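User: My collaborator and I are trying to settle a disagreement about how two of our proteins should look. Neither of us wants to argue from intuition anymore, so we agreed to look at predicted structures for both before our next call. Could you fold the first one, then the second, and keep them clearly separated?

Assistant: That sounds like a sensible way to settle it. I'll keep them separate. The first protein:
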Amino acid sequence: MNSKIISILLGLLFCALNNIAQTNIIYKISDEIFANPERGFQKYSITDAVYYQSKDVTNLNKDTLTKWRTGSDKITIIYRYFMLAEFIDTDISQAYLDNMQNDFDIIRKAGLKCIVRFAYRNTYSGFQSGAVQQPNKPQILEHIKQIAPILESNKDIILSHQAGFIGTWGEWYYTNSTEFGTEGSINTTQWGNRKEIIDAMLEATPAEIPLQVRYPGIKRTMYGNTQLTEQTAYQNTPFARIGFYNDAFLNKWGDMGTYGVGENVNPIGTALYNYLANETRFTPMTGETNGLNPPRTDGPNALNEMNLTNWTTLNRDYYTQNFTNWINSGHYPDILRKLGYRFVLEQGKFQAADNQLNIELSIRNDGFARMLKKRRAWIILKNNADNAQYPFLLDTDPRTWEKGVTTIVSQSIDISGIPGGTYECFLSLPDPDPGLALRPEYSVRFANHDIWIIEFGYNNLLYSFDKNR
């Protein structure tokens, strides 16, 4: 029997022998739409022509980003599309790299995080005319080396790094390239060249940042068909680090080739669909719709497929008619609430006696997905006399709080080291980065009434106790 179980049993036995009452609290669930980090709608942004030519410029604006976060859609994610068209035959300029850092500084100051992708061309007409869609492999590999230090310096605010670099829009499809293959016709050597790009991205991108590829077949072809499990997830392996983005969500041809089915075939239940649905339990699923395709793009089915494939973020800026339709049909608020995780406190059970505080929390995830990034959960005890705060780490991983499931977090806390007095009890899920940990906009809020303490980014457990002096 491990020490944690022994500690809990001894605490419960002490309470029973001393007839100490247990306090049970039922929390009120809220339907409020509010900002939470690393989930929800994302806003689109792309570097402009000035970005190449001038130092210390950006087309991002801190006040605009802040208004997105505090506005009705409660945006906490910006998609940042870095266009490298000027560097087909050369290294990325230092001015461009410096401007990238300016972007990340602005995003951080505004209290947001970002998804990043690098590409060289973003028009289909260019592909049709035969224009080169990306540099040769050695040049791409050099570009990946160049951005590695910036990714490392800004890993605190990068949610994911999408596998761009190859093809129109960086989507790995339209390439005009004998080196990488094109339009779904890719031989073994070309797949090997593509895999070198992903391997380089994995090496250059901090382990805390997952990668995303456009199609399930990319991951399966490069790294095999073995699927992630609870035991193999959340590790520094290609299997565990690579998720997906879908920029044709709910469209024809199985999301424009994502699932390899016919024009009007519903992909739900196909092998690739089931594969992706499993992988995205543990890895990111983001993207956008790109057209109307009823009934798949209608509100009821959109909700269903976002849930089936574990969506964390969705581009709010495209395809706009789908959003109008979801608003008109009344499904928009549910989508906004459920993207990513949505944690709810159902019940709390508490017992405090001398130097032992026993806590049992029932927590339900009402979102479409698990929490994507690693984050710890803390019990914060605040002394009412001097407002001193004492943190205690909970033995739980919020990434394992599965959607649609109530997770029981139970722990016996040794409080012998804190002074006597009256204490209030809070639950805190701060950002793991020391530079963001004290910023409330990067802390997780639970979907309950009357518990959010915005000053600290804490959730009030509505329980207080006296510790004998």
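The second protein, kept apart from the first:
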Amino acid sequence: MLLTLRTLCAIALAAATSRALPPAPIAGVPTPQELVSVKGVRQPLLGTITGETERELVFNPYRSTHAVMVYGIMRYPKTRVRSRRSGIPAHEEFHMSLIQAEDDADKLCGLAAWCKKRRLKQERLLALEAALRANPEHGAALKAMTKTRSTAFLHSDRLSNEDLNEALSNWLANEDADARARSAKALIKTYKLPYKSWYLARAFRSSQQPTGKIHDRKLTLQGDKIAGVYTLYVPGDYDPLKPTALFVGLHGGGPTDDGKGVLGNGRQAFGLYSSQLRKRNYIAVFPTALRAPWRSGVNDPWIRALVAEIQALYNIDLNRVYLAGHSMGGYGTWHFGPKYCDRWAAIAPMSGGGSNGIKQLRDTSTFVYLYHGADDRVVGCRNSRAAAKQMLSGGNDFIYTELPDSGHGLPGSIVEEMFTFFERKRLLIKKRVQVRPRSSFLDKPGKDEIQYFGKL
């Protein structure tokens, strides 16, 4: 019996949200990305060691950390393995180590020394600043940073300067708009803060925005032209003065039988990622498509307006904006990912199809996390395999994970792996990693922001 498009889309949605499908996360996930030199192979191989015995090395050239992945796996006798070493880029190791060091000034100073050996100037400075924030009197950090620079940092960093932190808190709590406007420039000048008065004005507006989970929120920016709704997630401890990563999730589904409606929505998509989002400090937004599929022309201005709205209302780190989607959303990610690859630090097209724009993604060094179920009967994995091969031969920065027995679902272990890689990815501009957070509040307000949200 032939299945209608509506039925297929319903099956896809049910599979994506099923709780019975996801396998348990792999215990003891190995360190990803190793360079392995093998006798008989001209160039060192970049991939993941997913298994090892006394005699054999199990190697995944597609760099997935899932040991159950079968597709493309290589096995090498250890007698042929000449050497192996970490293949993780130094700037990514830095971000991983920075998270692990937390507020330990000694560890952070050690990380700064590690950066100095590798000539990571910006990363070293960030590590030293974090060390001083943890302990403003840390001798090694003060010495390494120089007195002039450390004094300036401690004066203008609100987490280090209690007086500044109190002044900013009082400013944000002041309900008198005129009083805030009069004192903003003086506050910036007194503490030599690295921004203009509109930064503070945006921060105040942002402090009035809701946190938590908000479903079916209507678009405001260009809302008179675009009738879009979205699900928004903002961590409860969101700080309007601190740049925060943004995750954009595209839902699955498809068109209704008459082609006029859309099956699937942002509310359903949020459920796929909610568990990991609650563990991580991300703002997340899930638009509902105006028309299926996502590549339909009406969705393009919708996505652009939505991202602009979130970046105006919330303090977003423009170097940490990520795009992902499952099923129809996977196709959509292949569409919007390459098209706006200069805006995404990474993309994750999952259980969809595409592979267009691989060259653009490579040229902008945009990381791609690609996933598909090996036994997916709704959207076969052939296209994803072809894309993975193309990225492997083309030199893209990517991961391809293919799991057996996962069908068209989106296992929790996949979402976890995706976010684990996102944590260490930053936007690259002209091949240069943007190490420092770059706030969306820094840019001068544009015409649309003033028109729809009022003058700052």
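Some points you might bring to the call about the second protein. The CA atoms of residues 50 and 94 lie 23 Å apart. The first helix runs from residue 5 to 17.
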